[in-house]
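[Help] Beginner question about ligand-bound structures

Sorry if this is basic. My supervisor gave me a protein sequence and a SMILES string for fe (ii) ion and asked me to "get the holo structure". I don't really know what that means in practice or what format the answer should be in. Inputs are pasted below exactly as I got them.
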Amino acid sequence: MAPAPIFPVKVGHIDDVQELRKAKPTTIPERFVRDLTERPTMATALSSATDIPNINFSKLIKGNPDEFHSEILNLTTACEQWGFFQVINHEIDLSLLESIEKVAKDFFMLPLEEKQKYPMAPGTVQGYGQAFVFSENQKLDWCNMFALGVEPHCIRNPKLWPAEPAEFSQTLENYSSRVRKLCENLLKYIAMSLGLKGDVFEKMFGVAVQAVRMNYYPPCSRPDLVLGLSPHSDGSALTVLQQGRGSSVGLQILKNNTWVPVQPIANALVVNIGDTMEVLTNGRYKSVEHRAVTHREKDRLSIATFYAPDYETELGPMPELLDENNPCKYRRYNHGEYSKHYVTNKLQGKKTLDFAKIEIDYST
Ligand SMILES: COC(=O)C(/C=C/C1=C(C)CCCC1(C)C)=C/O[C@H]1C=C(C)C(=O)O1
Ligand SMILES: O=C(O)CCC(=O)C(=O)O
Ligand SMILES: [Fe+2]
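Answer (accepted):
No worries, everyone starts somewhere. Holo just means with the ligand present. The predicted complex, written as structure tokens, is below.
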């Protein structure tokens, strides 16, 4: 069952950032201006050695045995050391990637009154607006979101599926079913990379929950003061992120205490490990904190698909991955509980995962 929305929340007035941009105010409204410690610092020069790894999906799906094994090793390293990778040759038609981007962009370009027919009510996560805002004094992201539950159908709110653009719903259906297949396959290879049976996650997850969040970041005259999307880890098992063509480079991941930009590769999809996989692998594969920053002149579109176990699934570190040198770090819980916890708290780095952590007592 989908997590119920929620308690009454008082969030005050939330400016729509696209409308703000149109009005071109001389100063950025205070609610968007981050405290000094949270502001994006100037981009650090980065060598190509700091790019996130690439995974060549075609070597996994139809490579010869040598290619397959070397790609599984690459996947292990990507998951252990980065928690993020870009999938190339993923076998999703490029025309479908273009179509989803087009309907997403066309949706965000509709007049505000049209988009507001699909409002994200305060404290909920589906519809158009800003998610994860729970108080009047919380800083806001320089981002408009449009989020929808996709699978299973019982999490859908049909009233929030837009009539315009006319091709939106069918395109989202087609795109989601291809991304779902990709997630199923990636989880199979991730299981193998851990020395587990390929079907272990498929069996465990039941009818997996899948949701999409489209993020639109208009240009901002003071990108040094605001954040596009607050630092967070994803609550999913896996997230597949499509970065819009021609969008600004805005995604950054936290590695060794440094924010590293993710340079888009044409037609590739960014995949990251979510909190659920961190728990299942007892922290061997970690969900990595990430954020989005804005650009003075360019806008940014991104389309995130969250793939997670069904709400009834019992989660906890897999016994096969525990031993005396690797004691259990997370408790057992059910994914519905975690989902509810995730969507009722503001994005705050990896804090949400404290929900599952076992306090280790070093005093004895
Ligand atoms: C704005 O929404 C999110 O960021 C988000 C929410 C996803 C969901 C819906 C839009 C519909 C109902 C299901 C679900 C909560 C998945 C992020 O998704 C992450 C958070 C959790 C937990 C997860 O599984 O994916
Ligand atoms: O826009 C981006 O690249 C970040 C999106 C993201 O992290 C998310 O939607 O969870
Ligand atoms: Fe994310």
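A couple of things worth pointing out: Residues 45-49 have pLDDT under 50 and may be disordered. The CA atoms of residues 172 and 355 lie 32 Å apart. Feel free to follow up in the thread.
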